[in-house]
Amino acid sequence: MPDGFRSEVREADGSLDATARVLDAAGTDDERVVEAALRPRRLAEFPGQPRVRDQLGLVLEAARRRGSPPDHVLLSGPPGLGKTTLAMIVAAELERPIRVTSGPAIQHAGDLAAVLSSLDEGEVLFLDEIHRMSRSAEEMLYLAMEDFRVDVIVGKGPGATAIPLELPPFTVVGATTRAGLLPAPLRDRFGFTGHLDFYDVADLVTILRRSAGLLGVEADGAGVAEVAGRSRGTPRIANRLLRRVRDWAQVHGEGVVDARAARAALALFDVDEAGLDRLDRAVLEALCRRFGGGPVGLSTLAVAVGEEADTVETVAEPYLVREGYVLRTPRGRAATAAAWRHLGLAVPRETAQQEALPLEDSGPGRFAP
Ligand SMILES: Nc1ncnc2c1ncn2[C@@H]1O[C@H](COP(=O)(O)OP(=O)(O)OP(=O)(O)O)[C@@H](O)[C@H]1O
Ligand SMILES: [Mg+2]
């Protein structure tokens, strides 16, 4: 997440300004403590993402039987869907230690060299936000991932020499919200790439029941279903909303997460019936009211809602596109009829006509990004 965005969700005392962005899918530091407690530890207790889970399970099991480290693993997808959780699970399944660092923390190749040269055989190196690493570190990483070797540069200027240093075999687990930003040579070094997608409601219900149990919160079926349906397909948001509904239930109700508590708390925190939050609605409002439904370029749209383009693109847009409110076209972002209707506005004739086209004319991928 861009730092500017993070700082916006904080109060002066550093706590989460929950009314501002209860749906912000990126976690805050205080929240990370709660999150860590709610993370599934093993693949078998990880609900959802069946494809990625099966594929990853196979890769890990085969490596375990061979007794050698598995291929490097890249996990991509929107914030809060379980990339960090899966990285921890990789290490747990391999019964190996995990070393955690992130792209922004590695600004110089030397930083990476120090981490790499201290790895033990079979260790898992988790590189979060891998798309934010410096170019020179990236190049060092290719070599290390492929040949298990780093060139340590000694000295400066014309007298500088590269001393090759052999590394024991290890496994890189990279995580990124922006797989498209990774240079192809780096992407190619990963033997397995798992793309995480939004969760369906049934999986979120499973996750919420488990979280309620861990938090010692009583929750009934209707309450859990209400929260699951309004969590933007994102476990982090589901867990966060569960805690806010629990708060409401403890203050105004009997302490039970039920449908009444869920509806009241979600309304209080600006989560609408479709599960859209303030940023989502701001994007739709800008698209429809300011730009007549678009198409409009991402950066123009971002300025209109007062956010960074990166935030609009990684946080709001994937879900709006997937739910069919926004289309990504070569000329920019455009509102669908569903967006106009969601805001309670009349659907412009042109939009209605376009969407009423028989399917064979427009193709099945009309709503695809
Ligand atoms: N499949 C899942 N089952 C249960 N809980 C999950 C699952 N996926 C994610 N979570 C919960 O959601 C929270 C966020 O997950 P995680 O930190 O793994 O997301 P992330 O993809 O790494 O997000 P970011 O891109 O912001 O780093 C965690 O607290 C975890 O408990
Ligand atoms: Mg993460």
Summarize the topology.
Blueprint: H1 3-8, H2 29-38, H3 50-66, E1 73-76, H4 83-94, E2 98-102, H5 109-117, E3 124-128, H6 135-147, E4 149-154, E5 161-166, E6 171-176, H7 184-188, E7 192-195, H8 201-215, E8 218-219, H9 221-229, H10 235-252, E9 256-257, H11 259-268, H12 278-290, H13 298-305, H14 309-322, E10 326-329, E11 332-335, H15 337-342, H16 349-356, H17 359-362
Parallel strand pairs: 1-6, 1-7, 2-3, 3-6, 8-9
Antiparallel strand pairs: 4-5, 10-11
Helix pairs in contact: 5-6, 8-9, 8-10, 9-11, 10-11, 12-13, 13-14
The chain binds adenosine-5'-triphosphate and magnesium ion.
Question: Can you walk through the features of this model?
Answer:
It is globular and about 70 Å long. It has helices spanning 3-8, 29-38, 50-66, 83-94, 109-117, 135-147, 184-188, 201-215, 221-229, 235-252, 259-268, 278-290, 298-305, 309-322, 337-342, 349-356, 359-362, and strands at 73-76, 98-102, 124-128, 149-154, 161-166, 171-176, 192-195, 218-219, 256-257, 326-329, 332-335. The chain starts with a helix and ends in a 7-residue tail after the last helix. The protein has 3 domains: 49-195, Rossmann fold, CATH 3.40.50.300; 201-268, Orthogonal Bundle (Helicase, Ruva Protein, domain 3), CATH 1.10.8; 278-362, Winged helix-like DNA-binding domain superfamily/Winged helix DNA-binding domain (Arc Repressor Mutant, subunit A, Orthogonal Bundle). By secondary structure, it is of the alpha/beta class. The strands form 4 sheets. A 5-stranded parallel sheet has the order 2-3-6-1-7, with helices on one face. Strands 4-5 form a two-stranded antiparallel ribbon. The chain has a two-stranded parallel ribbon with strand order 8-9. Helices cover 48% and strands 13% of the residues. The longest helix has 18 residues, at 235-252. Bound molecules: adenosine-5'-triphosphate and magnesium ion (MG). Residues 83-84, 128, 175 line the site of magnesium ion (MG). Residues 69-202 form the AAA+ ATPase domain.
